[in-house]
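Figure S7 source data.
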Amino acid sequence: MKKIVLVSVGIGLLVWLTVDQRHYLFYQAARLSGGSPPALIDAVDELPSTVWFDDYYTVDEIGTGTFAIGETRYWQQNFNYLVVGEHTALLFDAGPGVRDIRPVVESITDLPVIFLPSHFHYDHVGNGTNFAQRAVVDLPYLRARADGDELAFTKMEHLGPIEGFPIPTWTVDHWWAPDQPIDLGGRSVAVIHTPGHSKESISLFDESNNVILSGDFLYEGMLYVFVPGSSVQDYLTTTQTLLQKYATTDVYYGAHRLTPPGPPRLARQDVAELEQTLLNIKAGELTGSGLYPKTYYVNQNISILADPNFLHDWK
Ligand SMILES: [Zn+2]
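Tokens for the predicted zinc ion complex:
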């Protein structure tokens, strides 16, 4: 009898640990099965207006003075965005660092460039230390743990070891509060705190083009809501914030592409359908398919990858 109780307690403990540490276990499994960036994929035809900088980077002007810098041969098909003002340029995301992005940026502008990541995952901050100035969203928990302006990313924020990228420590030159207008000269942008994919995730509002650059919060393909720091509740709250506060902004550009050609352009309607999908999941009307993570269908361009319903952290 005693033995049965001990075995039951042991199994219970193991199940609890697996559930409690599921995001960490998934990271470890990805790290053990990866370890280096996969081989580059073949280049495909892009838009007639797309300019190839070299055999890796593409450039598209998506609005006046706003450029999408594509890495369509990297397996995650990243898109980074350069917003050029009269005295300052802002680079929003810089890819995984498979190749140096600075020469592309310098081919577009000779203004001082501030680099701002949409979040700290390795496939967005890889070239971060190549720039003289770095900006980070000013969130109390990040400020509290920074040593002055020295900010070390955690393993679970960066995830770089999955593809063999070292975890950096940054000197932060600018701490930008959410919603604070950033003057680039003749135009301004604003950081929008958009948690859901990760706690520190931000989007960027390009006011002069009325466009939101949405990072990993919204892009074509499968949205990762099962990585450390992600939350379906945060995702829902953020969709509602965007729909209410940016009711007249119809155009979004994400950080990853699903299908060519050109940068991944999305619409306010996608945010509305994402909100509805999350509400359906919350109501228990949508249970997802697959084992783990579950796939929840949003529309033909977007799905959510997340925990099964019983593990969701709704408030
Ligand atoms: Zn990410």
